């Protein structure tokens, strides 16, 4: 996403119009999630994808038409009853793609968005992608850029901008890209306007505790999955950047103290994952006591079943209840038969992904139905 925005900014700065096609909604086995974009540049170059190749040709042609004509289009692509391989998704999915022309006059806020994305600062772009019925006020294609500090642009009215900004900041905090619906003046119970909120948030954090070989492999796969990876250990001889070159930062501190400090400073959230690889009670029990009291996405701890049982006994002695203990993934990872640190890291990453999206970890060959789970659409806050 950062590379796409950077390319948009380069073309935008040159003053030449180009097109952006964005997936704004998906159903069934759609290959790519909402927010995925494809650019069609002034020279005809195509960058990115909206479907992994299924409908790119049709979207490319539409993008060229929109660049020339200027008016945005919301187009649905799915399996055709007559020919599923013509202009459709062979996987059986359905996607809505919003295609718009981008130029400095129509999107003067793009420089602000590009600067924020490059700096790793949270920013949301809200676009009106559909209007129910006539559109005498020209709402289609309007946009509002939202940051934690303020807004720029407008969707057509102050009340609508205020309502949308409030909800967009909630999505920014959670790092979620979603479609929301409002009335013309921002009433959340009406649905005249369909707004797509594209969130560029700071990466979620992966905190890996224990400067061991497994941590080095975990740092590599965590960074590959898009996490900001921190490795923490109380032993300075082991907690070095040289041993963990793929980690974004290496910290020497007592694990429980570091996690508590980060949480109190607001640097953890419900996207943060914690991997405890120390399997030493003097480190992991105080750490897990802190972690299991926080609203984190995932908390896993390495160790044998015997270590796990002893760990639970010690954690119960700290006052943690069964509901909190049930959140602990221990022994950590899925049953892949892993042996090496790299294989174990894949096992842990697979469990984190399954936990995030509600996957079972079962082989797809033994299942039926859609292979892509859909995130439920959340209503606008207060709706």
UniProtKB/TrEMBL annotation:
InterPro entries from the xrefs?
A: MoCofactor_Util/Proc, XdhC_CoxI, XdhC_Rossmann_dom
User: What would be one Pfam family of this protein?
Assistant: XdhC_CoxI
Domain XdhC- CoxI: start-end pairs: 11-78, 117-183
- Where's the XdhC Rossmann domain? 206-352
What is the protein name for this chain? Xanthine dehydrogenase accessory factor
Q: Please give the organism.
A: Streptomyces hygroscopicus
**Where is the organism placed in the taxonomic lineage, from the top?**
Bacteria, Bacillati, Actinomycetota, Actinomycetes, Kitasatosporales
This chain is encoded by the gene named xdhC
